[in-house]
Hints:
Protein name: MFS transporter
Keywords: Membrane, Transmembrane, Transmembrane helix
Largest sheet: 2 strands, antiparallel
Number of helices: 6
Shape: elongated
Radius of gyration: 41 Å
Transmembrane segments: 37-58, 64-87
Amino acid sequence: MSTPPQEEETDVLIGRCYTHARRFPLVMGRLPGGGRLWGGPYTIPQAIVIVSTAVLLITTQEMWAHFGVVGNAAIAIGMPFTLGLFVRRMRIDGRHPFAVLGSLLGLIGAPTAGRIGGRPVRPLRAGRPVAGLCTVSWQPAPAPKTPGQNSAPAASQVLTAAGALLAARTKAGV
């Protein structure tokens, strides 16, 4: 036995927004063997700052390492991790410092006049005088119409005004 047709159900639209989940930065928190990184998890900019600062301190050790074994070790370990924590907390318009640096370098390298269609705008060539042609026709005010009188302007008046204008332009050298 068949069931009677149900009333059509209205479609319900369901909207979901996952932008908050996408705002979490990509982090490194585990070693390949499964162990946790000390002080981690670290974002990519943090890792770059920590590694580059450590390499810089090791290569310039002769210039700054005059504080004994304990002082030198504190500086060599403490400075990279302190700068890494600073980079993690530092946000400029909600972006990490390397994104801001990339935007700044792009702004410095951009053409000063901007771009049109992806290409730099080139300066305009030297200007040339532009000559145009303008025709002015003079017509006297129409006389009041009387029955049996033609109100069209005389063709000789229009031609005379155009001839005078042409003569004036030729005399001026335009």
